[in-house]
Structures are given as structure tokens and as C-alpha cells.
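Case study.
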Amino acid sequence: MRVDVDIPGKHYPIHLGRNLIANAQLYPEGARNGRAFVITNDTVAPLYLNQVQAALGDQLPVHVMPDGERFKSMEQLSAVLDKMLALKLGRDTTIIALGGGVVGDLAGFAAAVYQRGIPLVQIPTTLLSQVDSSVGGKTAVNHPLGKNMIGAFHQPDCVLTDLNTLDTLPAREFKAGVAEVIKYGLLGDIDFFTWLESHMEALLARDGETLSHAIATSCRHKAQVVSADEKEKGQRALLNLGHTFGHAIEAHLEYRDWLHGEAVATGMCMAAELSQRHGWISRADCQRVDALISKAGLPTAVPSGLSAERMRALMQGDKKTAAGRVRLVLFRALGDALLSADYDDALLMQTLQHYCRD
Amino acid sequence: MRVDVDIPGKHYPIHLGRNLIANAQLYPEGARNGRAFVITNDTVAPLYLNQVQAALGDQLPVHVMPDGERFKSMEQLSAVLDKMLALKLGRDTTIIALGGGVVGDLAGFAAAVYQRGIPLVQIPTTLLSQVDSSVGGKTAVNHPLGKNMIGAFHQPDCVLTDLNTLDTLPAREFKAGVAEVIKYGLLGDIDFFTWLESHMEALLARDGETLSHAIATSCRHKAQVVSADEKEKGQRALLNLGHTFGHAIEAHLEYRDWLHGEAVATGMCMAAELSQRHGWISRADCQRVDALISKAGLPTAVPSGLSAERMRALMQGDKKTAAGRVRLVLFRALGDALLSADYDDALLMQTLQHYCRD
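After joint prediction, the assembly is written out as follows.
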């Protein structure tokens, strides 16, 4: 299966299926001719690096980084760039990002800045990166003062989404990816949301056909949004549904304990609650959101020890602000999200107090 | 005077004239409303920072870096980004690059990667940066293993080319900028080259009208080339006329002693010589090139201690290669350059031996 991303000046395919990584024909010509550099981590390399080598040869230079979000740093980026320059890799080298979101974001940023930009192939190996970060060209590293603070937009030349990689994904990480799948239904496709309500068991069981439909639908939504608004001037910000609340939770936990998708899951419940308090959606709508997120085994409540005041302050620190006021992705209706700074601050505080009751 | 740069998805003006820096109306609205961050150096700040403050206010946060090419580094970039994050500057902040090419390239790269890209105003204060680096969106820092190896394409929102800044520019730096002015005539505008032959004295005397015509014509050529080929897939590479030879000279000197424009000047003579040896231009054409470069007070011979073999090797290290073979910008005729890998290696070695006679 193939989903196309069509951005002004850049058109590329997402290939979706099984046994894709070892299929040389799916890679750009330069990479097939030996001009490639693989970036992966020490969890993924033992599992899938040999398949990239089967496609592109054993002599490929490889950078294996340690697994973990804290290695999505300027230091690790410098280590990658140093190695590429020491190998005298030219501007015609393709970077192959083999791993989850951390590898994809860092490798993508390396591709964005190495000699002012070189080709990139994303091979996402987690559900989260398959439905989210591998598509759309956002790349970044973290900074001690904030996540994704240093980065660039750099579209890949193609994305290879090999469903086989999900066979080895731990259950908790899989569910964190499901949060982003639910997000696409919630923000713009009520039919998909309804489909998820009746197919969640099959999805969690990683049934092939269900998985394939869920990922392809998610990628199509992401591709459509990114095609319309690559640089996040408008519509693309809708993809941050649940993220401003979620980032506050993650910051409170110092990016430990909870996975990103888990924080987004609770964040989506909070966005629904705030919308309901404005009278934009019904109490029954809110309950549907909570029910599906619970069914996916994802959290619907904030972690303990986080006060409403502290959460409000952490939300202010989020970078998606316009002239100082935090804009939030809220609901006109389930399946119809909007980005708004036009919400009632008192209702926001009530929502936070409702969730932060410790 | 105003020259427009029209790149797909990005249109911006180069304002050219006197007393522009203190004119608030020329800055983007966000910057006028206090959302700006100035990057400059310790040579330029005492001369022109007060004019930026006159336009945008005294409270502007400023980063003053030390003057010099060696500060165009990842370390200095990190220092800038650290400061911007510590100040909690949002994505609506405009970076104001006040200085020559080093400040412009580093500040431009910071604007390219801060929160995945923020607005940028270039205020070039040297002739070289006015006719070259401030226009076209190439940004970068150097790496111990090569110049401009880490960077991005990031177009400014506007360029303020204030001719007053040239009043304080040392003569040697002014002449180095003239090398790039001559380049535009040589690569695509024989009439401008001929005009320069008869106006070089006035240009070196910094006569206002002559200066204005020379800079505007150069900017128009740069804008036209960049509009047609932002990412240097083809035509833009012609702007590297003299640069592959020049970079070899600079690398030999470890980027000391000679200014970039001086190395490019000699490099243009060498490109003419190699073209003449292929029979593409005449001996008289070569002599015209040498004569104008000499008249500008620029070098037409390589520095001592550089052998032909060493120079050939240094040219190989330049990044503008396709599948291993160095492409050179050569002449079909004076005023008509082409990028070619289709030159005779023996004639290239003869040219290098002709120049490297020590």
C-alpha cells in the first residue's frame, strides 16, 4: 500500500506493508548505489539493521546511538555530524533513519543541516513514529530548557513503514502509539473514531488487517494536513490536539515515567472536558472520548502531585503561543477540532482543578 | 532603491540606500513591536547597534559575539540558542543579523533552527555580505573538518543594505567585496563587466552613485539566480565561480592571511586560464580578467608554498562534487559561465602548474 505526501516542491511516498526494509527497490537510487549512512539505536540495530544491509550492502557506514529520549541532544547530533564529516560523505549521501521517533527526529535534523541538507529515508519502527513523526518533516533535538527547541522542517524522500517491526514492539509503547491514532479520528474524522470504537480489541491484538487500516488512515490524515500546511501556519497545529496539556504533564514528570502518547491521551480527555464546559460538545461526547482512551489501556487522569496552578504555568511554557496567550486545540464537535485562543480562562482553571484534585 | 527576491513560497525585498538601519518602517511588524533579538559582533556593535535601537527600542535583547571567522562555530551557535531559550523568546521573535558574512551566516542558521525556524532580517555591513551572503538564504557554521559544513537554507524576511556602513569598512575588506561584484559581470553580464572596467577607480573611491549601481546590479543578479534555483540544483552553482580554486588557496593558508574575496579573485583568474587552455575563451579575454582584478587591488597569483599537486588535492576536498569528480565553473565566453565536470584533467594540471611555480 502507498500513501502520497504532496507538499509544494516535494512529493514523496509512504510505503506501507510487510517485508519492506530488505526491499532494495524501495530506496532512492543513490542509497542503492552505496551512498548512504544509517542512523539507528542499540535496541533496533540487533533487530533490523541486517535487513537494511540486505537491501543496501554490508559496507554501509552506521551510527548506533544509545536508546532513549535524553540522547536526542545537540551533543549526539554533533557526534553524528563529526562522524559523517570524518567519513567525507558527500552531499549525495542519503541518511537512513532506522528507529522510533528519537532516531527519526535526530537523524532527520542531521539530514536537514549536513551540508545544508541531504536526502533522507525514514524507517519508523514504532507505531507512534509510523503514524506521526516519520511523516511531515518535523525534525529536532531537545535542549535542557525545552523539548524540540532546535530543529528544522526537512521532508524525507520516502518513508518505509514495515508492519513487521511492530511484532517486537512492547505493549506499552504500542498503546502509546494508539493514542495518536485516536487523535486523527478525534480531530477530523468521526467515522474513523467510530470505527476505532468497534475495532480497538483487534487493533490491540495487532491483527494485520486492522493495523494496516488504522495506520494507513492515520498516515493519510497526517499527509493531508501536512500537504496543506507544511510549516504549521494554521491547520497543522490541529495535530497538537492534547499536546499542550500533555506537554505540561510530561514537564511535571521531567519527561520520565509517562510515555508521550500516554500524556497526549490524558491531554485529549482534558481538551474534550474544556470544550464540554464551553457547551461546544456534550457530556456524552466526553464520555465517548474517555471510554475509547480507557479501552486502549491509556490513562485518562493526570499523575498525582500536579496542582492546577502548576499545570497552568507549565502550559504557558509551551512554545505554541501567539503574542503570549496559549492557543489550545479544542472541539467544535467530536471529529471537528479547532485551534483557539478564544476560550474562557475560568473554564480552563475549572478543568484543570477537576483533573488535578490531589 | 528596492530589489525583490522571488522564491517559490517566499518573496522578500532588499532595501538599498542610506540611513536605512534607523528606519523602523523597514522592519517586520513583530520586530517593531519589540519581538526581536539582535546578533552582532564587537566590531560592529559600537558603530551601528544604536541605530537598530533607535528603530526598535533600547530594551532589545542583544548577543554580541567576538569578531572573526573562527567564531562561526557550533559552539557559538549553541551559545546564541542557549541565550534565546533562557530569555524564553517565542517563535514570533525576529532575529536581526547586524554584521558581515560571519554574523549573517551564524545568525541566519540560528533563525533556521530556533524552534524550527523564525523570522530573520539581514543587515549586512560589509560589501561582501551586501552583494553575496545576505541574499539567498544560505546559512551555516564551520566545522573543524570544513567550512560551511553544517547549515540550512533559510530566507530572510528582508535585507537592509545601508550604504552608510561602507564608510567604516577597511579598504582591504572593501576590495575583497569587489571581487564578488566582478564575479557577477564575469559569470553572466559582460556589459556590467565592461562597465566595471571603466568605473573601477570610482568604485574604489566609494563614489555614492557608482557604489549604488554596482551593489544593486550585483543584488539583482544574485536575486535572479537564487529565485531560479534556491537549493543549488543547477544554475546557482555558477555563483561558485572562482570558489573551488579559491577554497583550495584558503585551505592551504588554513583560512588565515587571505580574505575570502582575495582567494576568489585569484580563483577567477585560474578559471579563465583553464577555459582558455580548452580554447573556449581567448588569451585576450584572460588578460581582461587579470587586468580588472589587478585594477581592483586584488591578487592574481596564488600564495607561495602551494604546489600544483597539493592544490589539486585540496580542490578534491571541496564539497561541490557529483559522484566523486570535482565540477568547476568555467567560461564558454566572458560573461557566460557554465558548471562542468567535462574538462581535461591534463589541462587542469597544466593550469595549476602555471600558477604554482614556487
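Observations recorded in class. The first strand of chain B starts at residue 2 and ends at 7. The two ends of chain B are 48 Å apart (CA to CA). We will return to this complex in the next lecture.
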